[in-house]
Write a structure and sequence with these properties.
The protein has 138 residues and is of the alpha+beta class. The protein contains three helices and eight strands, in the order αββαββββββα.
Length: 138
């Protein structure tokens, strides 16, 4: 009798826990034309914006690869299991961060909408926040 009760418990747990553990995909948030924060005393140059992006990326564990067109490709690998790649374009007054590709992030397109694991948006927002912090420290 105890073994049947134990088996029933594990079956119930598996049925209830699986949806709670699974994370459904969410729409990808691309950060287009994000204003570069600056003080009233100093307007940054494009080179300073690039330097802030590089410093922020390094601080957050991203690897940056400059591209021939002047843009940057930023890659974040997590536990050697997941990876995301974003393209970053920048100027003195704004920058954009857009999805390029990912590995093991449940990427899908449905009804013309790009979907991905919710951590993608969390990780890219962390990079945005770090860039803003770097810009304010100039």
């Amino acid at each position: 009798m105890p073994s049947k009760l134990l088996a029933a418990f594990f079956i119930a747990w598996a049925l209830l826990a699986t949806p709670a553990m699974a994370r459904s995909s969410v729409p990808i948030v691309n950060h287009e034309n994000v204003s570069v924060p600056s003080s009233e005393d100093k307007v940054p140059t494009a080179a300073e914006v690039k330097q802030a992006i590089l410093a922020a990326a390094e601080a957050k564990g991203w690897v940056i690869a400059p591209q021939p067109d002047g843009k940057l490709l930023a890659t974040l690998k997590v536990r050697n299991k997941h990876a995301i790649v974003v393209e970053i374009s920048y100027a003195a007054d704004q920058y954009s961060l857009t999805y390029k590709e990912s590995i093991n992030m449940n990427y899908a397109e449905r009804d013309g909408e790009q979907l991905i694991h919710p951590n993608y948006n969390k990780w890219t927002q962390g990079l945005i926040d770090a860039i803003h912090t770097e810009m304010l420290n100039l």
